[in-house]
Design brief:
Blueprint: H1 3-7, H2 17-38, H3 46-71, H4 79-94, H5 101-124, H6 130-148, H7 158-165, E1 167-168, E2 171-172, H8 173-191, H9 193-203, H10 205-210, H11 216-241, H12 248-252, H13 254-264, H14 276-295, H15 300-336
Antiparallel strand pairs: 1-2
Helix pairs in contact: 2-14, 3-8, 3-11, 3-13, 3-14, 4-5, 4-6, 4-11, 5-6, 5-11, 7-11, 8-9, 9-11, 13-14, 13-15, 14-15
Length: 337
């Protein structure tokens, strides 16, 4: 055996972070099924599966957009307020008239796109950190909501409520829409130049700039899509509630939950590495946990404790894997010398 071969560290098979997420999802499902069985309920009943998939749809839409933003190294804390105002704009425009559905949808999504554009421009042109920029834009929207709305408003026609209330078998239409959009975003990241630039900018802004990339465009695009996804989530919630609500986004905690789902899915908060399907896996884990804890009447205040433990454990695992990867890379360089 040669000296180089004897000193080369053993290469261990490394699982992709997305694979780890889905292994964790299987474990959560098994534990959840056991807990529900002890409580006399069937985890795999059509009703429970439908509840889990329904819980995935809104958070999934927001988390898809949040993934794009985080991949660029930014964040979006304005999403709950974009969700709320989008639901209100749509419901007030529709006024219960099915002929106004298209107009209501377009107005809600146009507002969401403008909010995302504002976020992107503040981050890229004014050089404001994404956390602060989107928090500021979100507070502006919140101030408008608090000033002009004291409760629910508008009315969604029955034809539009069909989207949030029906499904194909146990699979809600809203979940099908969410998964279809996840597929489109996945293909966008893999197949388009802008998608590759999003990863590049998140990996290293300076290197991307020196390579000749227009670094502002991917960041602005990611913020616009993130807000549009939040607008779609607002439309979905309006279809379920039948009205628009000024608090539906903030009460759902979609800003922090979407970031948590993205991180749980293996996307680095620093940007440059992650996947849409990892995020969907993270969303599924949260949906399963919420369904199981609700079914066994778990203390609502302790739900966040469980979520926090899951997130910290996931980040610890990813961090440990990153340290091992860097050590292996350093060891290989030493051997090559």
């Amino acid at each position: 055996m040669s000296e180089a071969a004897s000193t080369t560290p053993r290469r261990r098979m490394r699982l992709d972070s997305t694979v780890i997420v889905y292994i964790a999802l299987v474990v959560v499902i098994i534990v959840g099924a056991i807990l529900l069985n002890t409580a006399g309920r069937n985890f795999f009943s059509l009703g429970n599966i439908r509840d889990i998939l329904t819980g995935m749809s809104v958070l999934g839409l927001v988390a898809i957009g949040q993934t794009l933003v985080i991949l660029t190294g930014s964040l979006d804390l304005s999403v709950p307020y974009v969700i709320s105002l989008s639901s209100l704009l749509a419901a007030e425009t529709m006024k219960g008239n099915p002929n106004n559905i298209a107009q209501g949808v377009l107005i809600a999504l146009a507002f969401a796109a403008i909010a995302g554009l504002a976020n992107g421009l503040v981050v890229t042109k004014l050089k404001v950190n994404g956390f602060i920029a989107t928090l500021g834009v979100g507070l502006i929207i919140k101030g408008y909501l608090d000033t002009n709305y004291k409760g629910s408003a508008g009315k969604v026609p029955a034809a539009f409520q069909f989207i949030g209330a029906t499904g194909i078998g146990p699979v809600p239409i809203s979940t099908i829409i969410m998964l279809a959009l996840a597929t489109l975003v996945f293909l966008f990241l893999r197949k388009t130049r802008t998608g590759h630039h999003i990863y590049a900018v998140g990996g290293s802004l300076e290197v991307s700039r020196l390579s000749g990339l227009r670094t502002a465009r991917p960041v602005i695009f990611a913020h616009v899509i993130c807000s549009v996804m939040a607008g779609l989530a607002g439309l979905l919630l309006a279809s379920r509630l039948g009205v628009g609500s000024p608090t539906v986004g903030s009460q759902g905690g979609y800003d922090l939950l979407s970031i948590a789902a993205v991180v749980l899915g293996g996307t680095l908060l620093a940007g440059g590495r992650g996947s849409i399907w990892g995020t969907i896996g993270g969303v599924a884990i949260f949906a399963v946990l919420d369904s199981v804890m609700s079914a066994i009447q778990f203390n609502p205040f302790l739900k966040d404790v469980v979520r926090g433990v899951v997130i910290v454990a996931a980040v610890a695992i990813y961090t440990g894997r990153g340290i091992e990867r860097r050590r292996a890379r350093f060891a290989n360089k030493e051997v090559a010398r």
